[in-house]
Amino acid sequence: MLYANHFQMKTEPLTSSSGAPYYEHQDSQTAGPRGPVLLQDFILQENLAHFVRERIPERVVNAHGTGAYGKFTVTHDITKYTKAKLFAKTGNTCRVFARFSTVGGEKGSADSARDPRGFALKFYTEDGNWDLVGNNTPVFFIKDAKKFPDFIHSQKRTPKDHLKSATMMWDFWSLNPESLHQVLILMSDRGTPVGYRHMHGFGSHTFSMINAENERLWVKFHFRTRQGIRNFTHQEAVMMCGENPDFAQQDLCEAIAGGNFPKWTLYIQVMTEEQAKHYRWNPFDVTKVWFHDDFPLIEVGELELNEIPVNYFAHVEQAAFSPANLINGISFSPDKMLQGRLLSYADAQRYRLGANYHLLEVNRCPFGFRNYQRDGAMADSAAYADLPNYHPNSFDTIKPDAAYRSFEYETESNYISHFNRNLNDDDHYTQPGLLYSRAMNPTDRENLVQNIITSMSKISGEKRDEIVNRQLCHFFRANLEMGMKIAKGLQVTIDSSMLNHSKI
């Protein structure tokens, strides 16, 4: 029974936040039984003041989520790729915190809605916390972080009536054909997974690994579910949103509570710097994938989730992830979306939680930390007491270790400009076309087409035809059959000029 063990324990006095015991918790102090409440009832003031401050700003994206602790175990040797201590030998383990989420919905939205799913992991390693902050998709809608605010605005709510708008969504996507790959995944049944246990996870971006010989390789991370892929159809997802808006949260919690611990197998893809120079697509473009035939999956380890946090707010809501939290032997890449996230994620957490968010239990490195950051809201001196707040100094024993020196490299160019993100990288259609024609079975293709028709049918206003026709051109260029089926479902008459305009 909930709380049973606590009730069996010896009772302890009720206290204020300062630790002073008190008795009158339910009745305010008044002048007479029906008189006015006195301002001097400090317990009343304390409880109300704390209550109205219990909520912190919700995440701008990925607001609705759930989380769990678990462990990661290294099962295969990848020391030739990385010098990270976590991967130094098979059998190594570390504690992990995982947070899954929907991306576009607010905190109280339904977690079975059509949306990408956040797949964020925090590895508590002896060399610091490593955050792998990805999605359940291997690609994303845009390839430059400068476009991210506009993209999210198009997926949120209209300024006037504060409603979600299919017109805004498809207007943005139709004007940004780089989004097509992710749009097809989102509009397929992969956009409505059955909870969080039955979906893959991806680092999505290209990262790098540095080995003991100080050689750099490019890498992508894949977490493949051992529970098997399961997705809702559109109709099933809509029904679940109404019947149980917290289905994914409940499903994960009940599975772990019942000992049915969900697991994923970690794989990596590895590309050499020389291969990156000659690959068909820009390997740092997050709207593209690396074909498995070209760069096979290499098994690395096992992720198991086995513990639901004791307090949702303290652990899940206050969990703070950032792709900038990397460890020695794992680093970033020229991926423009990743580069933008290195700053913005940590900055978002400072806004939501304060400058000392890293001191919270869920975010704190269990192996300790040593730096010269001091003060700020919610500062806790336990880690540094009265040690100096400057470096170098004559009093502490902290010394920079040359073994952790950053990887040194030359950039390809010293010419500075605002380069067109699609310059020599404008093939937005081959991979989405292959996704439709080869990766999807007939049922998947039919569901995808119907889901797109259902969504695009909601486009309205004087720009409707312009938006629909522009998006249809992208579908035609990816796969003519798909485009024709969608056009028919939208009752759009196709003429030769539209097809000619759509030719690659």
Q: What does this molecule look like?
A:
Among the domains are: 65-141 and 190-366, Beta Barrel (Catalase HpII,  Chain A, domain 1); 157-175 and 429-504, Hemocyanin, N-terminal domain (Up-down Bundle). The chain contains 15 helices and 10 strands. It has helices at residues 4-7, 42-51, 148-155, 166-175, 180-187, 234-243, 247-257, 273-278, 312-317, 336-353, 430-439, 442-456, 464-478, 480-489, 496-501; strands at residues 65-74, 93-102, 117-125, 128-135, 201-202, 207-210, 216-225, 263-272, 298-307, 330-331. Strands 1, 2, 3, 4, 5, 6, 7, 8, 9 and 10 form a 10-stranded antiparallel β-sheet that branches. Strand 3 (117-125) and strand 4 (128-135) form a beta hairpin. The longest helix is centred in the C-terminal third of the chain and has 18 residues, at 336-353. The radius of gyration is 26 Å and the shape is globular. The model has no long low-confidence stretch (mean pLDDT 94).
Radius of gyration: 26 Å
Main beta sheet, described?
Answer: 10 strands, antiparallel
Please write the CATH class name of one domain.
Mainly Beta
Helix content: 25-40%
Helix-strand category: alpha+beta
How widely separated are the two ends? 64 Å
Summed up, the helix count is 15
CATH architecture of one domain: Beta Barrel
